[in-house]
Amino acid sequence: MASSLTKESPTPGTPGSPRSFFGHPRGLATLFMTEMWERFSYYGMRALLPLYLIAPSGLHLSVPAATAIGSVYVSLVYLLALPGGWFGDRVWGPRRTVAVAGGVIMLGHLTLALPTAGTFYAGLGLVAIGSGLLKANISTMVGHLYDGPDDPRRDGGFTVFYMGINLGAFAAPLVIGTIGEKVNWHLGFALAALGMALGLAQFLLGSRHLDARSSVVPTPLSVAEKSATLRRAAIWAGVAAVFYAFVGFSGHYTLNWVMVPLILLGLIVPVVVLARIKRDQDLNESEQRSMSAYIWFFVAAAVFWMIYDQGATTLSIFADGNAENTVLGWEFPVSWYQSVNPVLIMALAPVFAWFWLALNRRGKEPSTIVKFSSGLVLVGVSFFLFLAPLSIAGDGHKAAAMWIVAIYFIQTVGELTLSPVGLSVTTKMAPAKYASQMMGVWFLAVTAGDATTGLLSVAGVNLDRMGVVALEAVLAVAAGAAVWAYRGRVKSLMGNVN
C-alpha cells in the first residue's frame, strides 16, 4: 500500500498528493483494505459452509438441508442490508455502524470456530447481521470521499474499491478453504475471524482519513421515534422469545422452525417493499411507469440469482463427491472452485467495459433490456451445461474439473452482462423520493432468489438432480426470452432510460 502513495502535489486529497491512494483520497485506502478483509472473511467462510454442513467430520447434514442453510444465510445477509442502511442513516451514522458491524462479524466467525452445533448457528446469525450492517454503509462512505456525483474521480474510486472485494474473494478460498478442508474446519472459521480483525483494525486506525460526513447521522431519530422503535423491537423480541420457548419446551423444535420464517421473510419483504413504492401516491405518472418496468427487471434478477448463487451450494456440494478435483494429477480442495468467479471478474470486467464502449461509439451497444435477457439466458445455459457432469456422475464416473470451471465461466459472463446493468438501471429508474433506498431494493432481488432456493430445499427437493437442474435452466432461458419478447412494452414504460 505504501508504494502507491505519491508526493508530487501539495494539495491533500487530489491526484498525486501526499494523501492520495492510486490518485484518489487517502480514505479510499482505508475502505479498500477494510472491504478486502471483510470479503476475505465472508467468502472464506462461505466456501467452507456447505462442505462443513455435509461432511461426516462436520454437521453431517443432508444435501437439501445444507443447501437450504447456505441459501437462507445469503438471503438474510442481503435482506439485512435494508435495516443496516437504516441504522447508518438514523442511529449511528455510517462510520460507527461499520465499526460495530466489523466487531459483530468477527464475533460471529469466532463463534463458528467453536466445535458445537448450537454455537455454529448463532455464529451464522451474527455474521449475517454484521454483514448487513456493513454492506449498506461502507459504499456510502466511499461516495463521501468525492465532491458529489460529478467528481471525475468518483467512478474510478468505486472501481478500485470493488477490486478490493474481488481480491478478498479470490484469496479467501485458497487460504481459509485449504486450512478448513485439509487441517480443521473450525481453524478455518477462526482464520475468517482473523481476517475480519485485520479489516477492523485497518478501519479504526485509518478512519481519520475518512470524510467528516461519514460520522454524521443524516436523519437522526427524534426522542419519540426512538421510544416507539425500541418499544416495537421489544414487543417483537418478546413474542419471538415466548414462541420459541414454547416450541422448544414442548419438544417440537426443529431447525425448520427458524428456517421457514426466514425464508418467508425473504419472499414477502421484497414484494411488500416493491408494492409500497409502486402504490405511493406521491409518485408522478412517469415514475409509476418506471416502477412498472423496474418490476420486470427485479423478477428477472431474482431468477438469475436463484441459479447463480447455487454455485456456492449445489455446484460445490456436487463437486465434493462427484468431480475429479485434480490438475495434472494434483488434487486441490473443493473450496478452491469459489476463487474461479472473482479471478474471472477481475480479468473480464475491463474487457466488458471496453467492449460496451466500443459498441457504443459505433451506435451498436445493446440496450439494457437485451443485456438483461442475455444474462438470464447465459445463467440458464450454465445449468444446461451442468447436465453433462451430472450425466457423467450418474454413470458412476467422476466428472472432470473443467466441467465445473466452465459452468462458473458462463455464469460469470452472465453476471457481467446483468449485474452492473442492474445497478445502473436501478439508479436511473428510481423515483426521486426513493433515490437513496432503491439500491437496497436491488439487493432484495438476491434475497428473493436465494429464499426461493431455500424454500425448495426445505421442501426436500434435491437441487442437483438432472430433472430439477434442467427445469431451472429452462426457467432462466424462458425468462430471458420473455424479457426480450416484451422489450417494446418494457421500453415504453422506461421512458427515456436506455
TrEMBL record:
Pfam families: PTR2 (PF00854). InterPro entries: Dipep/tripep_permease (IPR005279), MFS_trans_sf (IPR036259), MFS_Transporters (IPR050171), POT_fam (IPR000109), PTR2_symporter_CS (IPR018456). Keywords: Cell membrane, Membrane, Transmembrane, Transmembrane helix, Transport. Belongs to the major facilitator superfamily. Proton-dependent oligopeptide transporter (POT/PTR) (TC 2.A.17) family. This is MFS transporter. It comes from Streptomyces lacrimifluminis. Residues 1-21 are annotated as: Disordered. One of its GO terms (biological process) is tripeptide transmembrane transport. Its main location: membrane.
